[in-house]
Structure formats: C-alpha cells, structure tokens
C-alpha cells in the first residue's frame, strides 16, 4: 500500500516490462503452440498493427438478399472531404447476378436536421457527389416529386446516379411501365416524369431544384467551390419536429439516468 498517495512514495519502485511468450500463454492471451505471427490480433483478415480503416477493403461472408446463396460483402470506410466518414458496403452475387450497395454514416446522428437544396444549372451538376442516408427524403418541386424517408436506402453516388436509380425503381415497381400492361395511355404521367428526368440528366432542363431533407443530418451534396460558399447550394439546419424524432426513435431514447425507472 502506498502511504504517500497521490504523491510519489520514495520507498516504492514500479517497473513496466514486456511479457514473455510463456507468460502470455499462462494468461490465456496467446494459444499454446501457435506461431508468433498468427498470434497477432486480426480484424476481418487484416493484422491490427497494420490496420487502417480508410485504406483497407474488408471482406466478410453474407447471404444474397435475393437468392440467399452465400456470397461475399465488401466494406470500406470513406472520408468525404468537408463532411464526415461513411461506411460503404457492396455485395455482388455470382449466382443470380444481384448487385447491391449500402451506405451508413460513420458518425452519430446530428443534433439538428439538415435540408440541402441544389439549383441545377448545367450538365456539370450531374457529376456532383451525393450522399443520401437511409433517413433522407428527396424532393424536386418543379416536377412535383417527393420520396418518403428510407426510399432506396443509403446511397453514395452522383446526382445523375440517384436520378437514374429513381427512374429504374419506377419502371421496375410499376406494372404499367413494362410488360404486357404497358401502353401509352397507362404509362401516362409516369412516362412523362421519366422523360423529364432524362432532360435534367442530359442538361436540357435547368433551374430545377434538387432537395435532400434529412432529419438525422447525415446527407451531403458536393460543393464545387469548397471551402468557399457555393452559390448553387443552400444548406439549412433546423430543429427536428416531434414526429421526426418519433420516426428516428429518439423520443423513447434515454441517455441520461437510464438506470432509473
């Protein structure tokens, strides 16, 4: 017992040392008979001392969401400049050909929601990087278009890529757009809407506003003038409503004094 704590005890000497391999075996830290190199901790196949999440692509087994055949999922951490880290997961099934990718924010939920509005002026705006989290809704007021929270899940793509994904989903999920049920009369407004999206992608329809509304604050549109302000981008942080907190599960979440009833 140190009688001078917290001050240094002149009669006490403390020495730190590296444990031997035999001591590690006795403590159960290293398996007996294992090679020294194999004894190093590994994280998803990468040795911990060499591991850098932003430089490595990690692999782990999974099942295809379409045919349930075992396949491999790739995961990588990407640092988005002037934003935050995100985790990108991609699955490619060699059995049925299904390809899927999903994006998760590497950070926590922001204190406020965020609405980002991009005014599309030319074809170059189609190549802007965009991160749409799974809690984000998308609006194009000029086309009277709005998605609900969670549509298409999390995506890290470009503005053009996201518009193409919306068009593909409309064609795949609506029976009047494809197959025997497809007729000019039945496709109607959906067909016209897809044509409007094509005009935007081709740069023939400018002045359109592309809006991301994310109550979790984890969505992003690339600024072409960062770190200076971008005249085409408007970013608004806002207080979430009770309904938005309810959708995010925050109203029932207790982070302080949670041990109390």
From TrEMBL:
Alphabetized UniProt keyword annotations: Metal-binding, Zinc, Zinc-finger
UniProt-recorded Gene Ontology molecular function terms: zinc ion binding
Pfam family, one: jr-ZPR1
Domain Zinc finger ZPR1-type: 62-223
GO cellular component, one term: nucleus
Highest taxon in the source lineage: Eukaryota
Listed InterPro entries: Znf_ZPR1, ZPR1, ZPR1_A/B_dom, ZPR1_jr_dom, ZPR1_Znf1/2
Family membership noted in the UniProt record: Belongs to the ZPR1 family.
Name of the protein in its database record: Zinc finger ZPR1-type domain-containing protein
Organism of this sequence: Littorina saxatilis
